[in-house]
């Protein structure tokens, strides 16, 4: 049975689920500390500091150089990732957790398309179906907010920032896929906080808020959860095609819905549950379509 499960659930998919759970916990913690008055750039800086220390120790543990081989592309990954991270954190702090996560997860569409043009990858039929169902699920979940009174329900600026963050994330994921051909995963991860820390410190300005012991611990957890998510993501992109791996990461939406209910009292509507069901269905087709011999999946 374990061997059967391992053959049906690729290692890259399992890493992506771990990544999704780590990032969901990260988002919930970011929202929590923001409600206690910690500004976004300070949260980014705290997360980057923790990740930088953990990443550096991990690289040294492996006995390899922290600087890698393709330095320009590594710095580009760090810069794009930093921009995307700031956008994501802003959306998490200004939108409900479920909605903020949904907007983040437009990125698999961008990733799959970018992978075709820049990585010359071929998108499988199951991935097309997954993306279609996931986008439909996103639409269903957002549709009640997209009516005539949408501007009163969700701040449009926050929505646009969230979409920008999703696009930035997709670029970063494709760069990771490219870097994985020549770089160790720990080095790729190390460059993210290496760029994010000085950038966020410069942007904090006079908005710095001295956290108490409890908030300091929460800020550390932001970095820890991020590291878990980042490690899972990097491993997933190394062992799975970019489009397929990123499509399955939609399960973070489900994690975020649960965390929103439990910790923030954000009760999803029936539309959220319907959209979530479509997203999960798409993810399952993406993973199991090749094995279940569905008639609409071309080999």
From TrEMBL:
Subcellular location: Membrane
Keyword vocabulary terms for this entry: Membrane, Transmembrane, Transmembrane helix
Transmembrane residue ranges: 12-30, 36-57, 78-96, 102-119, 126-144, 156-176, 188-208, 214-233, 245-264, 270-289
Nucleus listed as a keyword: no
Record's bilayer topology term: Multi-pass membrane protein
Domain EamA: 11-142, 157-287
SUPFAM superfamilies in the record: Multidrug resistance efflux transporter EmrE (SSF103481)
GO CC annotations on file: membrane
Gene3D superfamilies in the record: 1.10.3730.20
Protein name: Permease of the drug/metabolite transporter (DMT) superfamily
Organism: Vibrio owensii
